Amino acid sequence: MTWAAVLAGALGCYLLKLTGWAVPSALLERERVRVGAALLPVALLSALVVVQAFADGRSLTLDARAAGLAVAGVLVLLRAPFLVVVLGAAVTAAVLRL
Amino acid sequence: MAQACALSLLLFTGASQFALVGVLGAGGTALAAVASALMLGSRNTLYAVRLAALVPLRGPRRLLAAQLTIDESTAMATGAPEGQHARGFWAAGLSVYVFWNLATLLGALGAGVVDPRRLGLDAAVGAAFLALLAPQLRDSRTVRVAVGGALLAAAAVPLLPAGVPVLLAALAVVPVLVRTPKPEGPS
Question: In this complex, how many residue pairs, one in chain A and one in chain B, have their CB atoms less than 8 Å apart?
Fold first, then answer.
C-alpha cells in the first residue's frame, strides 16, 4: 500500500517535470495556467501547516506542536535559514514534552 | 527506511515528499497522499517550461534534467548570467540531489534508533511546510490564498477523513483564477 503510493507519487511527479520539458511552451504559459500553478502550492502548503500542527485524528488540538510552530513562525520572520527554522520547532516541542 | 530513501531518489521534490508522508502518517489513504504530492509537484512543470527555453537539451540528457527540475536548480539557472544558465542548472540540481539523498539516508537510519516524537520531529514537519510557504507570500493575493487554504483545511479536519482537508484547500485558488483576465491576443 505504502510502496504503491511512493511509486505512483514518484512516477507522477516525474511526468509532471518531463511534461514541462517536452510540451510546447505556448500551451503552458497562458496566464491562468501560470497563476494556478503558482498559487496551488501556496494553498496546499498552508493547509499542510494547519493539519500537521493542529490536527489530531479528526479534532484540532493545541499541544507541543503548536508551540513549535509559533517558534518557527518567529524564526521565519527573522529570516532564519530553513534548517534553523525546522530545528527550532523540533527543539521547542521536544523540550515541552520532557 | 527503504521507502524514505526511494522517495528522495525517485520523487525528489521536497514539498511533495513531505506531503505524501504527512498524509499517510496522519492515516490518509494512498490516493489522497498521491494527489497531494502531485498537486504540489505541478509547479515543477512550469519550472521545466522556463528551463527548456534557457537550457536547450535533447534525448537522454533531457530525461535526466527533468528529474533535477526543482526550486533550487530553477532558481540557479534563471539567476545565472547569460551563457551560464546550463552550468547553474546542473551544478545546483546535481549537488542538491546528492546531499538531499545522503541526508535522507542518515535520517532514515536515525529514525530506527529513537522515537521521532521525542525529538519533536512531528513539530519539525509543520515548521518545514511553513518555511517552504513563507518565501512565496510576496503579495496580498498569495496571502489571501494561504489564509483561505488554512481555513478550509481547519474547517474540514473534523468533517473529512485524513488527507482530504489538504486536497480541499486547493479550492482556495479558485476565486483568484476566476478573476484572472484572459490575455488579449498572442503574447
Answer: 299
